């Protein structure tokens, strides 16, 4: 699910699988403070909230 404000977009990633899955989004993980890349994986059962500037993909 993605929500947007005037200058930012927030993507909520939830991994319901039993193994890690590719997130497919770049930005900053607000729960960990780390940068994310398209090929980063989210562990099984984990969640992430990714902040992006509008227009960044």
Features:
57 residues; Immunoglobulin-like; two-stranded antiparallel ribbon
What features would you describe in this structure?
- This protein is mostly beta strands and 57 residues long.
- The protein has a single domain (2-53), classed as Immunoglobulin-like (Sandwich).
- It is 0% helix and 46% strand.
- It has no helices and 7 strands.
- The protein has a 5-stranded antiparallel β-sheet with strand order 1-2-7-4-5, with no helix packed on it. Strands 3-6 form a two-stranded antiparallel sheet.
- The radius of gyration is 11 Å and the shape is elongated.
- The chain starts with a strand and ends with a strand.
SSE string, helices as H and strands as E: EEEEEEE
- DSSP helix fraction: under 10%
How would you sum up the major sheet?
A: 5 strands, antiparallel
Q: Give the number of helices.
A: 0
Q: Can you identify the CATH class? A: Mainly Beta
- Amount of beta strand: over 45%
Number of domains: 1
Average of the residue pLDDT scores = 93
Low-confidence blocks of residues: none
Instruction: Give the overall form.
Output: elongated
**Annotated CATH topology:** Immunoglobulin-like
Task: Report a brief summary of the structure.
The chain has no helices and seven strands. The chain has a single domain (2-53), classed as Immunoglobulin-like (Sandwich), CATH 2.60.40. The model has no long low-confidence stretch (mean pLDDT 93).
SSE map:
Blueprint: E1 2-4, E2 8-14, E3 21-22, E4 27-29, E5 35-36, E6 41-42, E7 47-53
Antiparallel strand pairs: 1-2, 2-7, 3-6, 4-5, 4-7
């Amino acid at each position: 699910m993605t929500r947007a404000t005037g200058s930012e977009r927030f993507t909520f990633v939830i991994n319901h699988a039993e193994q890690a899955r590719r997130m497919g989004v770049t930005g900053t993980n607000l729960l960990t403070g780390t940068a994310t890349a398209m090929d980063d994986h989210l562990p099984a059962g984990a969640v992430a909230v990714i902040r992006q500037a509008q227009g960044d993909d």
